[in-house]
Specification:
- The chain is of the alpha/beta class and about 190 residues long.
- The protein is built from five helices and seven strands; from the N terminus they run ββαβαβαββαβα.
- Helix 2 links the parallel strand 3 and strand 4.
- The longest helix has 13 residues.
């Protein structure tokens, strides 16, 4: 699992194109060895995108933090949001750039360890955060989002119940003025 959070140049490539339709919005992204959810849209990411409620995206800015191969950011760009996407995995970022470019979408895609290279605030921060990266880094991403939200900004996450969702909700309530579970599946 740690290969998702490092850059392993010796890992062989096996690039696949994944086609997705969510709320009648069609898009695709590429996956490869060494990136999360190889060959398909992860169940949690799909649930996040299907339940994400937003105001009209005109002039709304989004950050896809820990973007991986980019399904969240690409979907948001397809909807018309101004999108930034970041990750520590260079292979994942290259795949995101390829997908964004081929679909003539606009997104600023850059390397960042959590928020280390993020220099602005957003209306929405979305993530299927890397649970297995460890609690300290996970909480840096989840709780640290507060510092990168505009006034009335929202952070949208998906977390498996068996991977600490209850404790994360409890800890988020200490930081955020409102924490809400929008959907539960499985």
């Amino acid at each position: 699992m740690t290969h998702y959070f490092t850059n392993n140049e010796n890992l062989s490539h096996d690039i696949n194109k994944v086609n997705v339709v969510i709320h009648n919005t069609s898009y695709y992204f590429y996956t490869d060895n060494g990136v999360f959810s190889k060959g398909e849209l992860d169940f949690g990411t799909e649930l996040l995108l299907k339940t994400f409620e937003y105001t009209y995206p005109q002039e709304k800015e989004c950050l896809d933090i820990g973007c991986g191969c980019g399904p969240i950011g690409i979907y948001l760009a397809e909807l018309g949001f101004t999108v930034d996407m970041c990750d520590v995995n260079e292979r994942a970022l290259d795949l995101s750039k390829k997908s964004v470019s081929e679909q003539c979408l606009n997104a600023d895609i850059f390397i960042s360890d959590a928020y280390s290279a993020v220099d602005k605030k957003y209306d929405y921060i979305l993530s299927n955060p890397p649970i297995r990266v460890g609690k300290e880094k996970l909480y840096e991403i989840v709780l640290g989002a507060k510092n990168y939200l505009k006034e009335n900004g929202e952070v949208w996450l998906v977390v498996r119940k068996d991977k600490g969702a209850d404790s994360m909700i409890r800890d988020m309530k200490n930081i955020y003025s409102k924490v809400e579970v929008v959907e539960k599946k499985k």
